[in-house]
Design a protein that fits this description.
single chain, 400 residues, alpha/beta, TIM Barrel, 15 helices, 10 strands, 40% helix
């Protein structure tokens, strides 16, 4: 089997492409062959991205209060998840939150808003925020994620300096109607097309662990290839209490690595981003997954906590990676600054009730120590996602 995956990588490097049968074989590889899969997919990653990792930072501009019924989402209509709920951040608050991520090592800011889609007044807000960010931070990339777009909105975002637009297809077309009923798969594809037509870099990905079959995961990845998404966030379901998917645990670390590897084989030259749920589901295999993927989010997510930002950065350095667009000296300085700040916090109490140099039981798996603790004897996560109580929408400093 080792030779088969290596031969697939060679074929792709020589100008060929993966077939749906190839992708299915990667997903269904024996667990004992997972490192052979990683080694082969890693050849493609190194060819196109070397040892770089793109570091992104999320700012949740408006949390909760969404009229859409996406069954997996903690912000959706009908969700009882106890998340932060607030209306639009001010321009000043947005700059503060984005700045924390950029100073922490990110090079792209992803500005996200809950809701079906933006009004023209919402676009006004994002235009103002984007222009302020570009003025304040030279070279920053801005990605907007605001829902379904209407005529002229993508063009306005592009003119303001937005670089990319995220709108995930989330799952295969054949599975879409089982996870959301208030909009269609075609609605999502339409918005990706609007973003591309306006000159925005299309960012679109999926969520694994929604009850889809192997064939539907393959279907979704080939759809993303056909849509020519420049960056593909691969999320792993975070089963929030109070949502229809609570207590849904379909994923293992090895399964997640196979899904990311399949994405690399199908889309060898695209940015494959390990997105929401990586700490919870990849656990000790996060670094292994980065030998296939080439992009992560730093710190927290929209409504849940991620692992400590310093842990993220040390993981990159310890595995021989560098941040895309950043000199090694600057990378080392950022890690040193995080370590210094942590040293000054030792013994302090953090929002989750843990000491600053370790994790308490309140974390629920949001940091590296908590993620290791939040497993049962079957190797599956035994805790619900840790709700974000810091950063945007709070008075507590962001995890950046």
């Amino acid at each position: 089997m080792t030779t088969s995956f290596d031969a697939l990588a060679t074929r792709i490097l020589e100008g060929g492409s993966a077939t749906s049968e190839d992708a299915l074989a990667v997903l269904q590889a024996a667990d004992s062959d997972v490192m052979a899969v990683v080694a082969a997919a890693g050849r493609l990653r190194r060819e196109h991205f070397g040892n770089t990792v793109k570091v992104n930072y999320l700012v949740n501009l408006k949390s909760g209060l969404c009229p859409e019924n996406c069954n997996y989402c903690s912000q959706a209509l009908g969700s009882q998840a106890p998340i932060l709920k607030y209306s639009w951040l001010s321009k000043e608050d947005t700059l503060e939150q984005a700045g924390a991520g950029l100073r922490g090592g990110a090079t792209r800011v992803c500005m996200v808003s809950s809701g079906r889609g933006p009004s023209d007044r919402d676009i006004d807000k994002v235009v103002e925020m984007t222009e302020a960010l570009k003025d304040e931070y030279a070279g920053v990339e801005v990605c907007a994620c605001l829902g379904l777009l209407k005529d002229g909105q993508a063009e306005r975002l592009k003119a303001a300096g937005v670089d990319a637009y995220n709108h995930n297809i989330n799952t295969a077309e054949s599975h879409h109607d089982s996870i959301v009923q208030t909009h269609t798969y075609d609605d999502r594809v339409d918005t990706i097309g609007r973003a591309k037509s306006a000159g925005l870099s299309p960012c679109s990905g999926l969520i694994a662990g929604l009850g889809e079959t192997d064939e539907q995961l393959v279907e979704a990845l080939f759809a993303l290839r056909d849509l020519d998404a420049d960056s593909i966030p691969v999320n792993f379901l975070m089963p929030f209490d109070g949502t229809p998917y609570e207590n849904t645990w379909e994923l293992s670390p090895i399964r997640c690595v196979k899904i990311l590897s399949m994405a690399r084989f199908v889309c060898p030259d695209k940015e494959i981003r390990i997105a929401g749920g990586r700490e919870m589901h990849l656990r000790s295999m996060q670094a292994t997954a980065l030998h296939v993927a080439n992009s992560i989010f730093l710190g927290d997510y929209l409504t849940s906590e991620g692992q400590d930002a310093l842990t993220d950065l040390e993981m990159l350095r310890d595995n021989g990676f560098v941040i895309l667009g950043m000199e090694q000296t600057a990378f080392d300085e950022i890690i040193a600054a995080h370590q210094d700040a942590k040293a000054h916090r030792v013994g302090a109490v953090t929002p989750c009730g843990s000491s600053a140099d370790g994790c308490g039981d309140g974390c629920g798996g949001g940091c590296a120590t908590g993620a290791a603790r939040a497993t049962d004897d079957a190797g599956q996560s035994g805790h619900n996602p840790s709700i974000r109580r810091r950063g945007a929408g709070t008075e507590v400093p962001a995890n950046a």
